[in-house]
Write a structure and sequence with these properties.
By secondary structure, this protein is α+β, with helices and mostly antiparallel strands. The chain has two helices and four strands, in the order E-H-E-E-H-E.
């Protein structure tokens, strides 16, 4: 992966609240390992405890969140999208290019152009 094609991304994934802690960690580690396998670098990874949702998502009133910031090439995005889309425990997800949203607080990462 060339250094010029690496960008800063953020992924927010909402998981089924019925998952136990070990199962939730497995899903989050799978996301993290996908980034490293594609030559990317995880900047930050936050696992949120069960949170009440503003509106029901797939008949769930609560959910477990995982928020991950990472530097990677564009080739990773389609694979990460595929894995999260077909993960039965992932209720909803979002992958953002942080540079496209200037209102977001940017994490400082080496090799990422602003």
């Amino acid at each position: 992966m060339a250094e010029t094609e690496a960008k800063l991304y953020e992924t927010i994934a909402l998981f089924n609240p019925d998952l136990d802690e070990e199962a939730f960690d497995e899903h989050v580690k799978r996301m993290e390992s996908m980034v490293t396998e594609h030559g990317g670098k995880v900047i930050s990874l936050n696992r949120w405890k069960k949170r009440r949702l503003a509106f029901p998502v797939k008949k769930h009133e609560e959910g477990l969140y995982a928020v991950m910031r990472f530097v990677a090439g564009k080739s990773l995005l389609s694979d990460l999208d595929y894995v999260l889309r077909y993960d039965e425990q992932c209720l909803r997800y979002l992958i953002l290019d942080v540079a496209k949203y200037p209102g977001m607080v940017r994490a400082k990462a080496k090799g990422v152009e602003k």
